[in-house]
Amino acid sequence: NFWCPGDVLKSTIFFQRNFKAKDSDIILASIPKSGTTWLKSLSFSIINRKKCTTPESPLLITNPHDLVSCMEYDLFLKSENPDLEAFSCPRIFSTHLPYHALPQSILNTKCRIIYICRNPLDQFISLRHFLLENSGEDQQKAPPIDEAFELFCKGLYPFGPVWDHAEGYWNASLNDVQKVVFLKYEDLKIDATSHVKMLAEFLGFPFSPEEDENGVVKEIVKLCSLENLKNMEVNKNGLLVLSPTIKFKARSFFRKGEVGDWKNFLNNSMAERYKKIMEEKLGKSGLAFE
Ligand code: PAP
Q1: What is the Å distance from ligand 1's center to 43 Cα?
Q2: Biggest alpha carbon distance in the chain?
Q3: Residue 62: count of CB within 10 angstroms of its CB
């Protein structure tokens, strides 16, 4: 019940069959273009703050996607059964799979899941820019925005539809608050500091009053800000090579990060139409987007 991109179909099945979760694992889940890169940076920094303080952070020289690997786009793409024992605990991984498609061992262990979602219209615009930026010469062949929007309204895009994706994690977060935390990109934009504190508690790495007083939380928020990461050499000019055919420009993960950017690309009738679809799909769930 989701659209799995062909190039990660095998790796998705390998992940589902072969991943053995540990109780200490942390899984970052999202539909693409909802805040994955930001969440990776923040979670990595929270967990590793004792090992490497902000001035020595690997984030200064490494793309966040190389610090927190994606299951289906990286680890299980490179190997049917990768050796993940070498990772230091707690291990942090990411996935774009919907909740119902996660490997059983993630559901059966005490490992924790952080889900991030975003206003789908902003996610759509972000995805479109990302695809255009990475399609090179094929840019001319990209469908016009109204055609792409048609597909979006039908949920036809990687790991879509978003209403099922978000609702799965939403329900899981209501059913088990110890296991799943549900975040919205927009809320993180409004107040990153309190979200970082909340995440640290959820992950079992709360900030001490001394750390708080010494500005450690604020430092992490600043380090992981879009402005900061976007201007780092590795994120300006690097290339993320996941397989001989899957390569992404590092800079394509860092664009505007604006809430409501869709208004610059979609008209009111498109927005109204999408609003009705979302109300129909998510009406009873208690989950809504602005
Ligand atoms: P992914 O799922 O392919 O990893 P993801 O990181 O979820 O992509 O989405 C990229 C979006 O997050 C971009 O949004 P935009 O196109 O609307 O600008 C990108 O700018 C934004 N983003 C990346 N890093 C950060 C950050 N540190 N803080 C805020 N937003 C960020």
Answers
A1: 15
A2: 55
A3: 15
